[in-house]
Amino acid sequence: MSRPDDRRPGTLGVFTVRPLDPAADAGLVHGWVTHPKAAFWLMGDAGRADVEQEYRAIAAHPHHDAFIGLHDGAPAFLIERYDPTEVELKGLYEAEPGDVGMHFLVAPTDTPVHGFTRAVITAVMDFLFADPSVRRVVVEPDVTNSAVQALNKAVGFDVLREIAKPEKTALLSACTREQFEAATGGNDR
After folding, report:
1. Could you report the per-residue pLDDT of 71-104, keeping only the tens digit for each?
2. Percent of the chain beyond pLDDT 90?
3. Contact present, 135 and 177 (Cβ < 8 Å)
4. CA–CA gap between residue 164 and residue 154 (Å, rounded)
């Protein structure tokens, strides 16, 4: 279910986004979130049923949803979008109108493509900012996840501060639409 405005052409192909179906996508997502490269996803020991249950809960939540990102039509990444005033960051930061929270995970591969993960996070940010009510994206990666911190910086995120969450110490970071456009070339992409 891709709308035409969800298509993001780039030098690495076309990225589209569709809603995650907890039952149909559980096997696929299970392989992604339990892979050793997804250690920061904190689901390494989850069974397929656990993954389906987690995404059923997200689908039923009024302030949290999940999507499968496609690269040239093939499943390639996972997006979670949430209202940070209700999920993940509730009470942990000073929310601003138009804030949206995000998690993303690129599917593991034996044949990595240079620049692919950066293209994915750019597509994710394009997807989020396609909603005109979104003014700022906030994220809370683990303080030790230097790879995602570098990606966040590349697309315009600024680190706000460390925050203590039950499962980790996180690096609260935010990116406005203007910061994103300045970092990635805006409409020149």
Report:
1. 999 999 999 999 999 999 999 999 999 999 999 9
2. 80
3. yes
4. 24
**Token code pair at residue 75:** 């499943």
Amino acid type, 187: N
Cβ contact 184:122 at 8 Å:
yes
Judge residue 69's burial from the number of C-beta atoms within 10 Å of its C-beta, 0-12 exposed, 13-18 middle, 19 or more buried. Answer: buried
Query: For residues 53 and 38, what is the distance between their CA atoms, to the nearest angstrom?
Result: 19
Q: By C-alpha distance, which of 119, 125, 126, 122 is closest to 138?
A: 125
Residue 52 burial (CB count, 10 A) = 20
Q: CA of 86: how far to CAs of 17, 40, 78, 93, 147, in Å?
A: 24, 22, 21, 12, 27
SS3 track for 94-111: CCCCCEEEEEEEECCCCC
Q: Tokens 């996508």 belong to which residue?
A: 25
Q: How far is CA 101 from the centre of its chain?
A: 8
Dist. CA 15–CA 113, nearest whole Å? 15
pLDDT of residue 57: 96
Per-residue pLDDT tens over the stretch 124-162 = 999 999 999 999 999 999 999 999 999 999 999 999 999
Look up residue 167 and give its two tokens: 């499962």
